[in-house]
Design brief:
Rossmann fold; Arc Repressor Mutant, subunit A; 38% helix; 4 domains; 7-stranded mixed β-sheet; 13 strands
Length: 515
Amino acid sequence: MSTQVEVAADSGGVEAVRERLRREGALARPLRHVFTLLARQPHSLSELVRICRTPRRTVEELIRLAGEDVEHCPDGYRLRDSVHELYRRHVRLDVPEPTRTDEEVERLLRDFVATGPAPCAALDHVTATPGTALRRAAWLRDNYDLSRAHLLLLGDHDLTSLASCLLVPELRVTVVDLDERILAHIDGIAAEYRLPVHTVHADLRFGLPPALVDGFELVFSDPPYTPEGIGLFTARAAEAMADGNSRLLLAYGFSSRTPALGHKVQQELLRLGMVFENIVSGFNEYHGAEAIGATSALYVCQPTGRAHKSTGERQAIYTHGPQSLESGGEPPGAEFLRAIGDTLGSEVTELRSPGWQRPLRTAGAVPVFDLRADPGPWLLRTLLACNADRAGFLVPNRHPDITSEHAQHSLLRLMGAKYQLCFQRGKPDANHALVVAERSKQGGGVAGYLSHRAHGKIGNIWREALIANSETPLTKREAREHVEALVTDSADLGLRLIDLPRHRLDTLLHTEAGQ
């Protein structure tokens, strides 16, 4: 059988090739390498397939698209000398020189980790070494086309986002995390080093922010190592991944003493419609995680057409703390509910489940939300989501938002335009506290308008808020331009108020929205 590819004279050359690479997105790197090889010397089809690790039909397609720009000679195929510069410029045959060496990046990462928040055992935090974060970034750089890529990290206690942008400055990164401390730490470093990292707050157990659905070619996560945790993070990743060319990179490890657990997790990944493209053992190293040898593998997963994109809400995914699989929170008894009612001054027959993906509209009896397993961020988010005139929020007595006057003042500052808050510590019992919210009697201005509409897109709601609160008439265009001039990161305008990290929420409500 002939190995020669029939070349179409009117194929469009470099423009057709560039369009093909654009459609391939982050997975275009091996296709781009085909033309890098053809520019150096003649290669046979078999050599191109083997070196670039690309299916033969794809290589043949690329040569056909190039048309007369590729010539066939006795030694194979080669790019014509006359078009080398054109392809170098438009197809980017040359790999750009790194702006920082790997050693420089690892040194910076050590400083970033040392000044960052301590691991939270209740969220299964085990810190990866700076060398691991660098290794992850290098894997992305060496295996994917990152020039126009958008990487999503589901959780980033290990600061892989910063490592990736330091190594590949043209990469855009979005970080989703539950831990407000991590988001603030990443934001601070990204601003100092001018790195294109955008942070978003979410608890993946309750859902993925709508602005992050279907937009990413690459998703990375080092999730809780329970089957439930792996399953939840994988399903959320599938929601975030763009249809077509996308990959999930997942850190996961299990002990050689418990292969059944590893089997169960791998079965869960397969059930969710993922296929293992690569498994690199011993890829991730940790300060801790000694039960699994302080290492885990890198799973490179390709979603199939059967990839599951939703698992609903799930709380028990961790191995420690109040949200662990073993904790199994018990429903409150009648006496406990009666004590809550006595504190609230209203009969309480049930507690409402946590969650803030949708507005919490209530009617009738005063609602009380069960936040006993709150790791910290739930109280603020539930207050933003709730639109009741009066509501109660049951939290641990040592909740970080109520344990000191400073903490209480901080929460009051954030919610003051919407709610007046009363902190009843040690009630209904010594282990819990009840936060009672009463709708503020003041108008609240722009901040109040935003706080009462926490599920709308910030760009739209903020514009409406300015129009509603302006002393002089404002057109929609004028209000939009005013908002765009005030916002620090335009990506925030596509988020909901409820998705903003706490430190940026405070800035928006008091520094910018109040102007």
